[in-house]
Amino acid sequence: MRIIPCTSIGQEGWLACRQALWPDTMAGEHLAEMRTALGDPDRYAQFMASATNGRALGFAEAALRMDYVNGTDSTPVAFVEGLYVTPEYRRQGIGTLLIVEVILWARAHGCTELASDALLDNEVSQEMHRSLGFEETERVVFFRKLI
Ligand SMILES: CC(C)(COP(=O)(O)OP(=O)(O)OC[C@H]1O[C@@H](n2cnc3c(N)ncnc32)[C@H](O)[C@@H]1OP(=O)(O)O)[C@@H](O)C(=O)NCCC(=O)NCCS
Predict the structure, then answer these.
(1) Rounded to an integer, what is the distance from CA 117 to the centroid of its chain?
(2) Among 24, 32, 53, 121, which residue's beta carbon has the most beta carbons within 10 A?
(3) What residue numbers bound the domain in which 73 lies?
């Protein structure tokens, strides 16, 4: 297994991994987001965990966020936008390796903080963050009102 950067929207398994993590997003929207990310490498990074036979085992995406990120002290902050490991390959350190790659990318872009989020009921993700040295900063509830 190795961690490789995604270099094209046709990257083996990238779209499928995205669809597994964000099933409510239409394929066309995924592809548009992937194009945007590939077109702005100073702001976005994306990595695949790839088996030696080329099979995709997971992915991570990160971005430099210029707006304020809850609980952080610097700008820009690197943010883990997406992280997913194929179910049968979980708990083998792949998520950890993907985050390590994101950290290397963030440091190379001058960041001193890496931020992330997890849904309140995603205790596995919260546990993984804690085990990788993330500290919990805030719990928030989003609202909206049609106006
Ligand atoms: C969260 C996720 C990416 C973790 O990937 P992974 O490759 O299994 O993670 P790792 O093997 O690197 O685990 C690192 C540590 O996280 C913690 N952890 C991971 N899975 C866990 C679980 N099911 N229960 C408890 N702790 C867990 C452990 O401390 C683990 O270290 P250990 O195995 O030495 O005890 C994976 O479970 C996943 O894709 N989940 C669905 C998508 C998702 O929730 N993504 C995150 C969105 S914020």
Answers:
(1) 10
(2) 32
(3) 2-131
